Amino acid sequence: MDTSAVTPDGRLREKLNAAVVFLGPPGAGKGTQAKELAKKYCVPHLSTGDMLRENIAAGTPLGVQAKPLMESGQLVPDSIILKMVAARIEKPDCSGGFVFDGFPRTVTQAQWLGELLKQHGFKQPVVVHFVIDPALLMRRITGRRMCKIGGEIYNIYERPPIVPNRCDSDGGELEQRPDDREEVVAPRLLAYEKQTAPLAAYFRRLGRLREVDAAKGVSEVSQRVLDIVRGAE
Ligand code: ADP
Ligand code: AMP
Prior knowledge:
Blueprint: E1 19-23, H1 30-41, E2 45-47, H2 48-58, H3 61-71, H4 78-89, E3 98-101, H5 107-119, E4 126-131, H6 137-142, E5 144-147, E6 153-155, E7 174-175, H7 182-196, H8 198-205, E8 209-213, H9 218-231
The site of adenosine-5'-diphosphate has 20 residues, from helix 1, strand 6 and helix 9.
């Protein structure tokens, strides 16, 4: 890449000015890549899963409703998600674009997103589809650990921290998400197949779908993601 396009701390000088959607099954690497891309462009990383977990941690009524559904691998109702996303998009930090991770997850959410983006002056999203053999997902999901402080994502098998159970960035303790236990993986993958996988065809029809081979290493995937985002109009 042209070095003048990048600041000394690795951020891109160009603006995103677009809505990016990361679509793919749980464990495909969406969160890992979304954090990185959002940082490069200085735009918000909008993970509906993280928003719901924050509500659970804060004990809000929304969190109380979402918790049992999440812990059993089911999707949270569209009405809850739509309200949460609408409120987030209103915030001024979203004016230059954003990266959605884990949203939309149903056709209703995708249709509604199209309307919301129009209202906010954005085109249809650039959708990056993380394509991966489901056989690889169990290890990625059950090995995932997240920092309690900053939410950094590790994997005890594939991407371990330098000091066991401590975040490399802030030393925070790492924890396993309750829905990353082996017994919750099957219902989550089933929910993905039934409710979310059809979105690939939906966005392909709109001419907005781009694919990445998510089985590759993190840096290869991030290079491909960046090429897609930069090439999209
Ligand atoms: P998702 O957000 O799609 O559920 P994550 O980004 O949280 O996925 O990644 C799932 C797990 O796989 C994490 O433990 C992460 O560290 C690991 N991971 C992410 N990308 C890769 C990759 N390209 N190769 C190997 N492991 C990865
Ligand atoms: P994630 O962090 O994306 O893996 O999401 C964790 C869980 O949060 C999912 O299994 C769902 O229960 C819930 N969730 C997150 N995003 C959505 C969404 N867009 N629609 C419905 N449920 C969601």
